[in-house]
């Protein structure tokens, strides 16, 4: 069975973005880019909510072709352009996009069926509203939470609308040169 892996940045006080979607506090470094590259190497599907998809689609298709493109830009742009994308959105319903499936209803059921299909992992970046739904339905298999050393006070929470206890097992921690701490959890009993 394919796994869904969530890669998400969070502030130390548990927010993934500021109240207006600000993410200017997120720290990145080459070591983190290399780790994320290993995630995408093991994935053949990108899973997004509409807002994250629009952000990604406005940047990644051409990022690797720019004259000053970094190794990471080239790698992620190539991955993004070649993988199947699944976008959960009611407003995009019925749109026909290259390598992209739009899901507007019966989301947990359809995602569960997609996990049962043959293939590599499904990679999810950000998309907090979608991550809430998939977490509630225990469809995310692994969480990579990148804790940034900042308190932002309020904004979009890392987790919301959890209706029952969900046990996770800490698999590893990783400290990055930027000061970010990566926490890798798997769904299951610790």
Helical segment tally?
Answer: 5
> How far apart are the first and last residues' alpha carbons, in Å?
21 Å
The first-level CATH class is given as Alpha Beta
Percent of residues in helical segments?
Answer: 25-40%
The total of beta strands comes to 10
N-to-C SSE string, H for helix and E for strand: EEHEHHEEHEHEEEE
CATH superfamily: Dihydrofolate Reductase, subunit A
Class inferred from helices and paired strands: alpha/beta
Instruction: Give the overall shape.
Output: globular
Q: From the 3D coordinates, which CATH architecture would you assign?
A: 3-Layer(aba) Sandwich
In terms of quaternary structure, the protein is single chain
C-alpha Rg (nearest Å)? 16 Å
Q: How would a crystallographer describe the biggest sheet?
A: 8 strands, mixed
Mean pLDDT, as a whole number? 95
Taken as a percent bin, the fraction of beta residues is: 25-35%
């Amino acid at each position: 069975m394919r796994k869904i892996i969530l890669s998400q940045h969070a502030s130390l006080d548990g927010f993934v973005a500021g109240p207006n979607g600000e993410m200017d506090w997120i720290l990145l470094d080459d070591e983190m880019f290399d780790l994320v590259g290993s995630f995408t190497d093991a994935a053949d599907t990108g899973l997004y909510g509409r807002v994250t998809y629009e952000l990604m689609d406005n940047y990644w298709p051409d990022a690797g072709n720019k004259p000053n493109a970094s190794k990471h830009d080239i790698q992620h742009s190539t991955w993004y352009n070649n993988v199947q994308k699944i976008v959960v959105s009611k407003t995009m319903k019925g749109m026909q996009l290259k390598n992209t499936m739009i899901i507007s209803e019966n989301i947990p059921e359809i995602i569960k069926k997609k996990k049962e299909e043959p293939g590599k992992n499904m990679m999810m970046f950000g998309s907090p509203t979608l991550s809430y739904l998939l977490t509630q339905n225990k469809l995310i298999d692994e969480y990579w939470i990148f804790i940034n050393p900042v308190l932002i006070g309020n904004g979009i929470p890392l987790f919301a609308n959890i209706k029952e206890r969900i046990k996770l097992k800490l698999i590893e921690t990783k400290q990055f040169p930027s000061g970010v701490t990566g926490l890798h959890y798997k769904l299951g009993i610790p």
